[in-house]
Amino acid sequence: MSQLFNYAVPGIPFGCVFALMGVGLVLTYKAAGVFNLAFGAQAFVSGLAFVFLVQDGWPRWAAGSIAILGLGPLVGLVLDRLLFRRIRTASPLVKLVPSLGLLIALPQVALIIAGSTPQIPPPALFLDAQTVYFHLGSVPLSGLELSITVATVLVVAALVVLFRLTPVGLEMRAVVESPRLTELFGINAGRVSAFAWVLSSCIAALAGVLLAPLYSQLNPEDYTVLLVWGIAAAVIGRFASLPLALVGGLGLGVAQQILAGYLPAGIIATGLRPSLPFVVLLVFLPFSRQRQLDDPLADCDPPIAALDGEARGYRAAATLTGDRGDETVMVGLWHRTLHPDGGASIGRRLLQRPTAVLGWVVGGLAVLSALTWVSPDWLLTMTQGIAFGIIFLSLTLLTGMSGQISLCQASFAGLGGFAAGQFANHLDLSLLAGMVLGGAMAAVLGVVVALPTLRLAGLPLALATLAFALLADNILFPNGWVGNGATGVLVPRPEIGPISFNASRSFFLLALVVLALVAGLVKLIGDGTMGRFLAAMRGSEVAAVSVGIDVHRLRVVVFAVSAGLAGVGGALYGSLQGSLAPNDFNYQISLVLLVVVAIVGLGSISGAVVAGVVYTALLKSLSTLPARYAGLLAVLFGLATLSYTRHPEGVVDYLGNRLVGLVGRLTGRWRDDLPPRTDAPAHPPTGVERVPMAADGVDR
Amino acid sequence: MTGALLRARDISRRFGGITALAELSLDVGEGEAVGVVGPNGAGKTTLFNCLLGLTPPDTGTVEFDGRRIDRMPVWRRSRLGIGRTYQRMELFRGMTVADHLLVAEQAHAGTVRLWGDLLHHARPSREELDHVESALRLLGLDELADRPVDVLSLGHARLVELGRAMMGRPRLLMLDEPSSGLDAAETARLASIITDVRRSEGTAVVLVEHDLTLVGEVVDRLCVLDFGRMLAVGSVGEVMADERVRQAYLGSEA
């Protein structure tokens, strides 16, 4: 018993930080309608600012005030204005991608602005981090632990006072309970939301500052891990309850220490602790969704966002049928259904052919160049681009066509690569056979991911797959028989009989063939019956199942196929590089992959291919710049993220449509072909029963 | 009643402290049209969800065509010949009107055709396209066939819902407030389509509806639900004359 106590007490400070993150996440989710994954980045930025200010000789209370009460809310408000306010009503994917992009980009931008990393170890907010002040039982309590716990208790007390005793707190509780009713009572829910946003940004900043002294050096990745714990706490709070999130965070902190204390050393023990959020997500997520499904009253009060959503649907429909024929709206992501005018305008369809021809010409020139004059390292980059193009295509299938958000695509790719290498090395197979086996292994993993998450969709599914990626990183890949830890696995170049693909040009051709096969496969699926079923599933799972589609089976199949394709891409990439280490495909890569392909274009095969080439080409060209500008990619990334909110169809489809529109305008012939306006859009901004475009009951 | 197409017995469903359905029983004969009315919150949509399996009932059994279906997954019940529309429409966002009908037609016919797709044999068959075309004509949506549903008017969108439910020639259509949000002309059109389908295909219909004119035009028999209980059953005239029904449905002053 006393041993349990000894393990539990050191977990409390961790739990405090997790709890703060969880509370902040729930607060913005309920009051502002966005599940803000950039929270981890906000925490990092404030933590970094705090350490720098202290290093420059500021007293800690002043540095803390500026970082927590000044910079924190400032960053939050800027993000809100620039970004989150615009996407409150968008689809789960459109909400998720920008916050993921910022999660990656924001810390890098902060590091560029700072210009260097801090030279001093991060100090505690108050007290001395390393000094042991007293013992609780036999557990020594350091200044670090005390400062975290005391600060959290104070903040929670302040929150209780705020919520219980002040008018704005009452209003905020009302908004969290029921934004719509609150509006009806004449309270400006928008103002209250803004206040909640500021408050939660302060909480993120506080968590960032408190956590800093745990590490000798501030590192964005540690804050992403913190974010995942915060997500788990928020999920325990069912995305809705602040007290439950608080308790959940505390419980997680204590539980992970107890687990670490009792489990025998080894991969499972070191791996299980970071995977605890996954277990929590898996156990609690279906529950939170189940509640929405079963609660008949859950739909009676859609959040304010949903009301906007109806207005937005109205606007979108107006745009569609209005005179701006070159604009695509978010009617879907897969190109077959993207033409805003449907089949009504043959002219526009004809115009799309030259655009496609242009694409083929550019692609053909690139291939020719690669085979003739391109330098070896750029040839390598192009081949890498093809490998990533294949992985992106797996997302086109899974997310673009089927609407299933996956944040563990890199894990599939990694497993495919490792398996291909291991099979080739140990069974002495050609890598081509290894690649097929690797793809098959990844497909099995896809089924393993799909089965427990069958009931999840939208945001919950994304979070579950993220947690799964962490699990793979921590438990699966470090094993010698999978990813072999930091050493990685050798992945040879393939051979077919006497033909070897050791030379870079021949390997490039091989990669091209594999890409063509995968692209063909995705296209056949997309254009066939299954593609139509997938589109139906993306549109409405409930309706799909009630016209007789076995949605569960369909999901398992599409996860398996997509994971298999990603595995083939990973194997190709590994073979190109010669070896593959777990860090080549860790969970961060999964996030980057989804964001990149979403920005470039999830709606078409060309989008995925272009995404692969552009991604590797950018990495390559930025790596030749001086170190000072190494973070430029992050800035680009952030900007692209902002553009994504305006054009969720992706850069490729957007430019294609612009080109078609431009030619159409120049010739002036197809202006009149736009379809006549149907009398009124299907989503009038009135009526309680209408399901708004965005509120699909999934990610509330 | 012998030979009932759908036979639901003692269906109960609670949500937390709310009893949505209390031991409700409902029979629908072959080709019969049954109306279900009741105040908002009476449990009508929950009844549909329980019959189709979207919400598992706490107790009770459901038989369709003499077979127990209450343990079947939703998609299998649908393939047995049950079509359904949603009060809060559940259209496939981004898909065209014709694709809605085609999906439903193909889904009724069979399972995922991954291998067929890969060998490129999975183009819609002539027969499937013919079915879609005739459904479009019946609904008067042929002009809008290639339009994405997102830009349709509410009236057209409701027709797409109805059309999707009708594909694959179901033997039972469950319509959940199909006229909600429609004007008088659109409702009349809806009534004539439902009547046409019943006449030509002999389809049985369960109609949840507030519009009593539509109910009167379509149904043979009317049930009144209140607080998850069956308040009255009978012909439209009988039921509407019932004092308890007037109390529950129209308010006490009526």
List the helices and strands and how they pair.
The complex is a heterodimer of chains A (700) and B (254).
Chain A (H helix, E strand, L loop, with lengths): L1 H7 L2 H22 L6 H17 L4 H28 L4 H23 L17 E5 L2 E4 H23 L1 H11 L1 H6 L4 H23 L8 H17 L5 H21 L4 H28 L9 H18 L24 H27 L3 H26 L7 H18 L4 H20 L7 H19 L12 E2 L4 E2 L2 E2 L3 H24 L1 H11 L1 H6 L4 H27 L1 E2 L6 H14 L4 H19 L8 H15 L4 H17 L33
Antiparallel strand pairs in A: 1-2, 3-6, 4-5
Chain B lengths: L3 E12 L2 E12 L3 E5 L6 H9 L6 E6 L2 E2 L5 H8 E3 L12 H13 L4 H5 L7 H14 L14 H13 L5 E5 L7 H18 L2 E5 L3 H7 L2 E6 L2 E6 L1 H6 L1 H8 L4
Parallel strand pairs in B: 3-8, 3-9, 6-7, 7-8
Antiparallel strand pairs in B: 1-2, 1-4, 4-5, 9-10
Helix pairs in contact in B: 3-5, 3-6
Features:
heterodimer; A: 700 residues; mainly alpha; ABC transporter involved in vitamin B12 uptake, BtuC; two-stranded antiparallel sheet; 2% strand; disordered C terminus; B: 254 residues; alpha/beta; Rossmann fold; six-stranded mixed β-sheet; four-stranded antiparallel β-sheet; 10 helices; globular
